[in-house]
Write a structure and sequence with these properties.
Length: about 375
């Protein structure tokens, strides 16, 4: 009967899976682990935007019969402070604000000159100079409308200005890094480049090295005089050729196909991709030694790729993560690649500037080579 044959085949599949402890662990544990970390990150409270205000405005004395001395700069800052709970306004000296902006510790500087109020009364408009740090596009989207709203409230409260017409508000925005031409894709491109290179190279290497093991090629190599680390390096170089071609395709299509803006050198971006691809190759070789079939390799994808994407600062800033997740974030190689790619593509940094990130990526690559060599040696002994 067909039902009996179907049930028999289903029973065989179930028993095979129940006998495979690694597959059961991947099926039961990985979803819980990924969902736990994703849930903790998705529930993160929005982090405040830190804005420095350099208030040089000396105010203006209005004509007789009006309100006397008025300081629009003071009114603007007071109104801005209460518009959004996630906006932190701090008054600073010019040198202090510039140093913090350079260090990336503040998101923007609003500098109100000495004649700010006088110009507003004379021209019936406000020109507000803003300097954005530029690495986070969400800052301009948040701060711009709030500045406009606070300025309208400040200037419309003066009796010498026609309150029936909306005053002209001009945001004179400049960017320390990037520019106003950068859109959301320009800021996401460094993250996407790193993630795609890591993910595709890792999957390619995992599956290919597993096939080498299942075909018996690895066992035959171990029976020769070749050393274990030579096996790993040989496979690494072989896979690396295709990994680098893939990395180059991803980079060129992102820049020229999607027309993503970049400030830094493409050669520097490719160097970061090179190290990331080699690292992904070594990680793929290492983890594939724990897989007995391609199904288990597929189970590694959410464990490695999703957790790496969640914890690398690609979707959520590391400083906003829970305390127990921050150490894990700095153990993710993609974290260093993301920082390096952002610094090159958005800030225009060179190889020397991103040197610490490159050393970290190289260190991870070497570490995975050594670990994979040890694992293969133990498998050969056992």
């Amino acid at each position: 009967m067909a039902a009996i044959r179907i049930a028999t085949l289903a029973r065989r599949v179930i028993l095979q899976l129940l006998a495979d402890r690694r597959t059961l662990a991947l099926i039961l544990i990985v979803p819980i682990l990924v969902l736990t970390i994703a849930g903790a990150l998705i529930r993160l409270e929005p982090q405040g935007v830190r804005v420095a205000v350099v208030l040089d405005d000396t105010g203006v004395t209005l004509s007789v019969g009006s309100r006397g001395a008025v300081n629009l700069g003071e009114r603007l800052v007071a109104g801005l402070s209460g518009l959004n709970a996630h906006l932190a306004i701090e008054r600073m000296e010019p040198d202090t604000a510039a140093a913090l902006l350079e260090a990336g510790e503040i998101d923007a500087i609003v500098r109100l000159p000495a004649d700010f109020s006088a110009q507003a009364v004379r021209t019936r408009s406000l020109t507000i100079p803003v300097v954005y740090e530029g690495s986070n596009p969400a800052v301009a989207r948040l701060l711009g409308p709030l500045l406009t709203r606070a300025a309208i409230q400040a200037i419309a409260s003066l009796s010498v200005i026609d309150t029936e017409s909306v005053p002209e508000i001009v945001l004179d925005a400049t960017y320390r890094y990037g520019s106003a031409e950068f859109d959301q894709l320009d800021y996401l491109a460094p993250v996407l480049i790193g993630l795609f290179v890591f993910m595709f190279v890792f999957i390619l290497t995992c599956v290919s090295f597993l096939r080498e093991r299942l075909a018996g090629t690895l066992e035959r190599l171990q029976a020769t005089a070749i050393r274990h680390y030579e096996i790993i390096l040989g496979y690494m170089l072989g896979f690396a050729v295709f990994a680098l071609v893939q990395a180059l395709v991803i980079l060129l299509f992102t820049i020229y196909g999607l027309r993503v803006h970049t400030v830094g050198s493409l050669a520097t971006v490719f160097v970061v991709e090179l190290l990331l691809a080699l690292l992904a190759v070594n990680l793929g070789v290492f983890l594939s030694t724990f897989a007995r079939n391609e199904f288990q390799v597929v189970q590694f994808v959410p464990l490695v790729v999703l957790l790496t994407a969640f914890l690398s600062g690609a979707l959520w800033p590391i400083e906003a993560m829970p305390v127990w997740l921050k150490p894990l974030a700095w153990l993710m190689p993609l974290t260093y690649a993301n920082f390096a790619l952002r610094d090159v593509m958005i800030k225009g940094f060179g190889l020397v500037d991103i040197g610490p990130y490159l050393l970290a990526l190289a260190g991870f690559a070497v570490l995975f080579v050594l670990i994979a060599s040890l694992v293969i040696r133990r498998q050969a002994v056992s």
